[in-house]
Amino acid sequence: MSNHTWAQIALLQRFVEAPLVTNQVELSLAHHHLINDGIMGNQTGTEYAGAAGTLDWCRLHGVMIQAWAPLAKGRLIDPPADASEPVRRAAAAVASLAVARGIAREAVALAWLLHHPAGILPIIGTLNPGRLAACCEADAIELTREEWFALFEAARGRPVP
Questions:
Q1: How many domains are there within the chain?
Q2: What is the pLDDT of residues 55-95, one digit of tens each?
Q3: What pLDDT shows up at residue 51?
Q4: 135 within domain boundaries
Q5: Residue 137: which domain range?
Q6: pLDDT at 114
Q7: What does residue 15 show for φ and ψ, rounded to 5 degrees?
Q8: Crossing angle, helix 145-156 and helix 105-114, to 10 degrees?
Q9: What is the pLDDT of residues 83-133, one digit of tens each?
Q10: Is residue 161 one of the residues assigned to a domain?
Q11: How far is CA 96 from CA 124, 129, 152, in A?
């Protein structure tokens, strides 16, 4: 499945015999709505991506989240001149941590997804061997909780409540 809400998955599961086991969604520091949704319960004036509860529901029902565009189509690595403010903030935080740790920016952005407790599986869409090698570094990175939240808060543009 791709870009299904929890209710759409539940409805579809009612009519198919095989278990639905993956939901491929856009997810990155630049498109963090599913993760942000999980911390914004009972908050007003927040972004709404139309998928409230989807990440939690998938975790509860054993549906793996596959993240497409985990590097935001390269915008987190090399933001274009017209990049939005949230993308520029996230890219700057990724670059800063990459320099501090001596690792590739791609690895930092992917490690952020890999360290979420949902077991998110990033889908790398590159055919560039150099970028692929940089992405593979993510497996060896252990982000601290402080680093993970610093990246998230940079992308959000505000602290986590």
A1: 1
A2: 999 999 999 999 999 999 999 999 999 999 999 999 999 99
A3: 73
A4: yes
A5: 6-156
A6: 98
A7: -110, 5
A8: 100
A9: 999 999 999 999 999 999 999 999 999 999 999 999 999 999 888 999 999
A10: no
A11: 22, 24, 14
| Residue 114 placed within a domain | yes
CA distance 21 to 64: 6
Tokens of 21: 């086991």
Q: Which CATH number does the domain housing residue 146 bear?
A: 3.20.20.100
Placement of tokens 């596959």 in the chain: 66
Mean pLDDT, the chain, integer: 92
Q: What pTM does this model have?
A: 0.92
Helix or strand run (H / E) with residue 87: helix 85-101
**Residue 109 main-chain phi, psi, to 5 deg:** -60, -40
Nearest to 79, CA basis, from 93, 59, 98: 93
Q: Rounded CA gap, 56 and 146, in Å? A: 22
Contact (Cβ atoms closer than 8 angstroms) between residue 103 and residue 142: no
